Amino acid sequence: MLRRTQPRRSAPEQADAGVRIMVGASSTGNVLLAGFVYYTYMRVRTPPSMSRSTGLPRHPRSTQAERRARSRAALLESAARGLSRYGYGNLVLEQVAREAGYTRGALYHQFKDKEDLALAVLDWVNETWWREVGRPAEQEPNPVAALLALARGHAVFCRRDVARVMMALRVEFSGQDHPVGREIKRASQTLMKRCARLIEAGRNDGSIPPGPPAKAVALAFWGALEGAVIALAGQAPHDELLAARAVAGVLGLDNPPVLPSPELAPRASGDDLHGRGDGGD
């Protein structure tokens, strides 16, 4: 009888090693060849953060809320660009979705119609403008510096075509009683009041000379500023300097700015707006 001999192994060894026994025998029962061929299998424990197939770190799966926020931001940016270029009446929602990399169904999952989308764009643009331009200007040490920083920051901000949403829609909805037009008017009135307060503060401390009512000067301030950035589109960094000079003339300053601010001049123009927009027109 042919006997098979095999070393006794513990349970872990049996689990981690495979053994094949090759035995040959003659007709008389003498063993001709006996040998062991071991196949050893190594168990590699991969932490949950590593991929079993590649051994590389896994990218954490985004949550539904994160995916929704990402798609909403992309759709808002695409819509802002479309509103700036084509206006509300000529905006095609299917094109907005396609340029954002989503389907029209995904757009309607976030916004119920064109009006809802346009109002969301105005909120997004307005909030971003205040974050990037309005609030930094309010940190300036005096009213004149704040107003000039506002003009320079707005000129730099408007180098992106999506930043012209408010200007484009204000013209389109002028004289109309429409939810989009009412929202533009509300945002503009808020901005005018803040500018008028800065002008009054400058007159009180003597940095801005007396003149027409502060509200009228605030309107002229923004008219000159928007006219400058529209006329000087693509003329960076001169747009920033000349916009500041234009508003300095409206304010009646004796010493208008002569150089762009070093903080704003290097910023290049472009259409990228991940979380950015305009709303302070």
Order of helices and strands: HEEHHHHHHHHH
* Biggest sheet record: 2 strands, antiparallel
SS element count, helices:
10
End-to-end distance? 100 Å
Principal-axis shape equals: elongated
User: What's the gyration radius in Å?
Assistant: 34 Å
Query: How do the strands of the widest beta sheet line up side by side?
Result: 1-2
Structural class: mainly alpha
What name goes with the CATH superfamily of the domain at 126-251?
A: Tetracycline Repressor, domain 2
CATH fold label of the domain at 126-251 = Tetracycline Repressor, domain 2
Count of DSSP strands: 2
Low-confidence stretches: 12-34, 263-281
- CATH level 1 name of the domain at 126-251: Mainly Alpha
Helix content: 40-55%
Mean of residue pLDDT?
79
Question: Roughly what fraction of the amino acids lie in strands?
Answer: 5-15%
CATH arch. level architecture of the domain at 126-251 = Orthogonal Bundle
